[in-house]
Each structure stands twice: as C-alpha cells, then as structure tokens.
Specification:
The protein is of the alpha/beta class and about 425 residues long. The chain has helices spanning about 10-30, 40-45, 50-55, 80-90, 105-115, 140-150, 165-175, 200-205, 240-245, 275-285, 295-305, 305-335, 360-370, 400-425, and strands spanning about 35, 60-65, 65-70, 95-100, 135-140, 155-160, 165, 180-185, 215-220, 250-255, 270, 340-345, 350-355, 375, 390-395. The chain contains 14 helices and 15 strands. The strands form four sheets. An eight-stranded mixed β-sheet has the order 4-11-10-9-8-5-6-7, with helices on both faces. It has a three-stranded antiparallel β-sheet with strand order 12-13-15, with helices on one face. A hairpin with a 2-residue loop joins strand 6 and strand 7. Bound molecules: 4'-deoxy-4'-aminopyridoxal-5'-phosphate. 4'-deoxy-4'-aminopyridoxal-5'-phosphate binds near residues 38, 103, 104 and 256. Keywords: Coiled coil, DNA-binding. It comes from Metabacillus malikii. One of its GO terms (molecular function) is DNA binding.
C-alpha cells in the first residue's frame, strides 16, 4: 500500500467508493459493540470471586488494635490494609489513608475540601481566590477534567510528551501564576497513552518553584501494577523526591483496587506526607464515621501480601494482553503504511491512544457510532472535551471479547480510512 497523501484525487475517490461499500456492509450487520470505557471483562472479574467467600460468620472479624471491623470507626482504615497499600505505593503506613470504594471520589473530595477549607500549606481556602486553575497534561483522563469543570476550576492544557508532561510549559506557568493550584498526573501507564513519567519529569515536578505555596500534584497512580508484559515500567518515588526537594507536602497519591478486584466494590487509597495525612484525617472525620472496613479486610485476607496482588495482576495480564495484541495487529495490518494514523503501544494500563490526521477524530467516532461501534467521545481526553487538533481517540480493548474486538477494530479502521480520505479530498479542493 502507498501513503494516501500520494494518491491522486481520482484514486482517492475510487478508494472511498470501495471503503464505503465495506462500511455499508458493516452497517447492515446492526452491530452493537462498545470500546468506550476501560472496564474489566467478566473473565477478569471472575478472578476475584474468592473475595466474596473469604469472610464468613465463622471468621474472626477482629483486627489489629482490637478493632471489630463490623462496627463504626477507624477513619483512615484498618492497619492491615494500610500496610498492604503502603507496600503497593512504596510508602510508610503512616502516610496512608485507606478509604471507601473509589479513588475518584477521594480526588474529588480532596479538591472540594481544598476549595472550602484549603490544604495544609494554604493561607486561605481556594474558593477565596478569584480564580483557581489546574494544569491538565493531555491527552488525559476525562473524569479528572470533569471534576475541574464541575467545580469551576479553569483548566490549562499541557502537552504530553513521550516521557510525561511538557515540563518547560509546566515550570513556566507555575512559577508565575499563584492561582495555579494543582496538576493532574497519571504517572504510570497513563490514561490514555500508556506513558510512564521519566525520572527527570518526577524530579522537575518535585523541585519546581511554584508561585502558589499550596500547589498540589494529584498523582493518580491508578495503573501502578497493571503491567501487560514482564517488562515493568519503573516510576521514580514522588513522595520521597518531594521530601528531598524540600516540598514534602506537595503531592497527594491516589490508587484503588477497582481494576484489580471489582470496580465499584474495590478499596481506594491515598498517600501523602504525614502532615497532609493528619490534616485530611481531621477533615474526613466530618464526612464519615469510618470506611467499609469489612471490604478492606476482605481484600487483606484475599491477597495477604503485595506478592499476592502481583500474582493476581499477572492473571489479569494473561486475559487482556491478547486483546491489546489483537488491536495493535489490526491497526498495523490496516493502517501502518497509509500514513494517516499513529498509535501507542502500551506496556501496561487499560488503553491504546490513537491519533488520526488532524481534524478527523470527530468524524471517525461518528462514523463508527453509526456502524454500531461506540468509542469514547472524540475530544474527551482534553479539557472541556475539546481536542485542539481533533485527532485523539481512546481505545479501550479490555471489555469486548476477542471476536467482538476484531469486528470493532475492522469497523474502526474502515472509518479512519474514510475520514482521512474525506479530509484529503477537502483539502485538495
Ligand atoms: N483514575 C484513572 C486514571 C482511571 O482510569 C480510573 C478508572 N477508569 C479511575 C481513576 C477510577 O478509579 P476508581 O474506580 O478508584 O474511582
């Protein structure tokens, strides 16, 4: 095959006719396939079924410090869970709060509390400022951006490079503007590109001078152990790096077992300096009398140690790696030589990020939708849902079966080709 840009007008038109016939055939099949959200497949959920049987009425339900997990209390989580998650995040149990079922809720509530009351280094609550702004490395996680939008926090798009956010942009902005209070980071196997931040990026984030004394890094380490291969990405320890940089309170780390056990019924965790943790604990005491300790105990008894979680994640990888491979192989076979799209080849996480030619992503997503294949909305990976180049598409391969995925990807490739030809025909007019 030849690059589309080398084709004459007539060749493009002929090719378009051919592709549209294929497209109409797909449409006639009345497909209903979904590659929009990063959900584990049923077989992955089955891996954790034992979690439902691990606690029963004959088990001892007392844990360390003589806590009865059936009752109220322990705002920051049971010791055993703190130890397990401290090992997961390479921090000390004293730097951990084990919470409820969702890390996104923890992130949302952390920002809401900062707006209402400030954070540990604040002079005043953030809401007193005329404007609060967050830096948003993009493409990024749509629900992070949705939190900012709902709380009227202005978002500033930062380019994602191959080793993390463009730190020249970040440093320049935070050094001048005191209303920039935070940055969203998915530092390992990022959503959607699968990028892991380099040591240099971690160092610069921890060391940079910020005009706001209470600037915070929201370090959403959602995919910290979601490896797809045996080649595990290494992420430099942000908490320790911030400490060494003299900015010990700069970072809030978040994670959860949503994509380890059951999304919606997992356990969420945050980690930070002890000062941050103490401050947050005091505030949490107004929000709740304590988290779901039974679920925390279930997770502890099921996995026992961090090695138990690692072993479990290998089994997840065995189930989903073939799906990632299939998507990559179909993209390679159908698009590689045409010069109309590029895509990430992640070593972990939940997504493949695809870039079409500029100005084509919306058209591709619409065409796919009309042929029965749902993708994440074009633009969703950018603040305010607006991709400045209209080119990024997030592919979530985990939920569909292999055969569904194959059909969905065949449809997607045809849609990308049609949209690209439309664009080329338009621009050569
Ligand atoms: N952070 C990221 C980067 C995610 O991709 C997701 C899930 N898609 C979440 C957080 C949600 O986590 P939780 O289920 O713990 O709220």
């Amino acid at each position: 095959m030849v690059q589309y840009s080398q084709f004459t007008h007539e060749q493009l038109r002929a090719l378009k006719d051919e592709l549209e016939k294929k497209y109409e055939k797909f449409k006639a099949e009345k497909l209903s396939l979904d590659m929009s959200r990063g959900k584990p497949a049923p077989a992955q959920l089955d891996l954790s079924l034992g979690l439902l049987d691990i606690l029963n009425s004959s088990e001892t339900l007392k844990v360390e410090e003589n806590i009865d997990v059936r009752n109220y209390g322990v705002i920051d989580g049971i010791q055993e869970a703190k130890k397990l998650f401290a090992d997961l995040l390479h921090v000390d149990p004293k730097q951990v709060i084990v919470g409820g079922n969702s890390s996104l809720t923890m992130m949302h509530d952390t920002i809401t509390r900062a707006l209402l009351h400030g954070v540990v280094d604040s002079i005043e609550p953030w809401h007193k400022l005329e404007k609060v702004k967050f830096l948003c490395p993009s493409p990024g996680y749509d629900r992070h951006f949705a939190i900012c939008e709902s709380l009227n926090i202005e978002m500033i798009t930062i380019d994602m490079l191959s080793d993390g956010p463009n730190m020249n942009q970040v440093e320049e902005l935070v050094s001048k503007d005191p209303s920039i209070k935070g940055i969203w980071c998915v530092p390992k196997y990022s959503n959607p590109e699968g990028t892991t931040y380099s040591d240099e990026v971690v160092d610069r984030l921890a060391n940079m001078k910020t005009k706001a004394p209470d600037f915070k890094i929201f370090w959403d380490d959602a995919y910290t152990i979601h490896h797809l291969t045996d080649e595990h990405a290494q992420l430099k320890d942000i908490l320790e790096t911030c400490q060494k940089a003299g900015n010990p309170n700069r970072v809030f780390i978040f994670a959860s077992t949503s994509k380890i056990t059951f999304p919606g019924s997992g356990v969420a965790v945050m980690a930070a300096s002890e000062d941050n943790i103490q401050f947050v604990k005091q505030q949490l005491a107004f929000q709740s009398i304590g988290p779901d300790k039974l679920n925390q105990l279930r997770h502890v008894r099921y996995f026992q140690t961090i090695d138990g979680i690692h072993h479990h994640m290998k089994r997840h990888a065995e189930l989903i790696k073939p799906k990632f491979d299939l998507v990559l192989q179909i993209l390679q076979t159908n698009l590689a030589t045409l010069d109309i799209a590029t895509w990430s080849k992640p070593k972990g996480g939940y997504f493949i990020s695809l870039n079409t030619m500029d100005g084509c992503a919306k058209n591709v997503v619409q065409l796919a939708k009309e042929a029965g294949v749902t993708l994440t909305n074009a633009g969703a990976t950018f603040p305010y849902g607006k991709d400045p180049n209209d080119r990024n598409i997030r592919i979530a391969p985990t939920y569909p079966t292999l055969s569904e995925l194959e059909t969905a990807m065949d449809v997607l490739c045809v849609c990308i080709q049609i949209a690209s030809i439309n664009k080329l025909l338009q621009s050569s007019k």
